[in-house]
Amino acid sequence: MPLAHIESLDNEGRGVAHVDGKTIFIEGALTDEIVEYSSYRRKPNFEQATTVAVVRASSQRIEPECPHYGVCGGCSMQHMNVFVQTAAKQRVLEDALWHIGRLKAETLFPPIAGKSLAYRHRARLSMRYVAKKGTVLVGFREKKSSFVAVMDSCAVLPLPVSALIRPLQTLMVGMSMPDRLPQLEVSVGGAQIVLVLRNMEALTADDEDRLRRFADDHGVVWYLQSKGPETAKLFYPLDAGWLAYTLPEYDLEMRFFPTEFTQVNPDVNRMLVRRAMALLKPEPGERIADLFCGLGNFSLPIARLGATVLGVEGSESLVQRARENAAHNGLGARSEFAVANLFDVSEESLMSGPLKLGTFDKLLIDPPRDGAQALVSALPVVGGPSRIVYVSCSAATLARDAGILVTQKGYALRGAGIVSMFPHTSHVESIALFERG
User: Fold this and answer.
1) Is-catalytic flag, 72?
2) DSSP for 250-299?
3) Which of 5, 157, 298, 326 gives a 20 to 30 Å CA spacing to 406?
4) pLDDT > 90 fraction of the chain, expressed in percent and rounded
5) What are 192's strand-pairing partners?
6) Residue 64 per-residue DSSP state
């Protein structure tokens, strides 16, 4: 096996080495280690590889907590100290801001991070019937594979959910059509665990009895999903209440449907909301717009702090959920929600059209991975919001949009920092503050 000395980490947490003039990206390797590696992809200028053996280990290397690490593709950085993971993600953000946006933040915010295990309250688990072995695998997919990893626990799922993996395997083996049950979506809200079963064909009466008994024995709620997410329906028990998470600092309970988007890490989400409010500084009398508002995760804290908020989202169902959450929390009078395609806007439609964002004092933007290029490009050079808080799930698109805000729209990048929403993965979330220069 060839040897490599690891010089640095790339944006996906892989070790970077140079061997015979070629760049090698090596999974499972850390800075300053010497490793044996095996390449699985070769190109003229680079190779992608996996670590076979560590010849000289870094002091940053730790023993992975999960026995399935290395096979399961759910995590990619469990071999790395969590503090080093956070520092590496901060470098990813800084590099993206500089190389893409040609920017440096005036201030680097302290990283937002929480517990690294049992944090994941949402997950989509794959299921695969293995006829030769008479079993059903339930879990995440293997690394770089469509196969489902053989696992009986998961260190990043809450303990009660992790403990369900083996009983779920037993349950699914006994179903009448285990090969037609490809997916299980898990959603945790408070003490409630909801399992959304993707059933490609109608269940038999015996199948339904099995699900009911499982729910009674394990204290879970079943939904059935015959096609897309919009087809998910409550199956059992029929008196199950809402899934919900709380934002205690703002005396908020946020209800949600199991297939609707919420942050996977509720503890870090609370810290993120706190940071966003500290940067945005909502005050009574202000009008603030929350763009890509979802079910109101930031909108309702803004309203609770006394400002009037307009939440805008492209999904009618999420907007309806935001309205319901506003009413549930007694904030209907200070909040309004609208449906709009924020990927297709112009300065005219944005500032003087139905949204009338030119009349708002501040903005909070929380777009999906594609970012908010059309939106920030439509902001006026003069006038408009004096302060923007931008929450991002992609360092690259944040950097691109930051470049537009600073070089074309007259804003200054006051600060930026990372949010470790997905420990043990290379996923980087971040938050940034822009003000008129």
Assistant:
1) no
2) GTEEEEE-TTS---S-HHHHHHHHHHHHHHH---TT-EEEEES-TTTTTH
3) 298
4) 92
5) 189
6) -
